[in-house]
Amino acid sequence: MAQDEALARRQRAKNIAVGATVAxxxxxxxxxxxxxMGMK
Length: 40
Known about the structure:
- By secondary structure, the protein is mostly helical.
- 95% of the residues lie in helices and 0% in strands.
- The protein has one helix at 2-39.
- The model has no long low-confidence stretch (mean pLDDT 93).
C-alpha cells in the first residue's frame, strides 16, 4: 500500500514538472511574440 502511495506521489510530481515546463515554453513563446510585434 505504501509503495502505491509513493508511486502516485512520484507520478504527481512528474506531472507537475512536465506541466510547469510546458507552461514555461508557452510563456516564453508569448513574450517573444510580444517583443517581435513591438519591434515593427
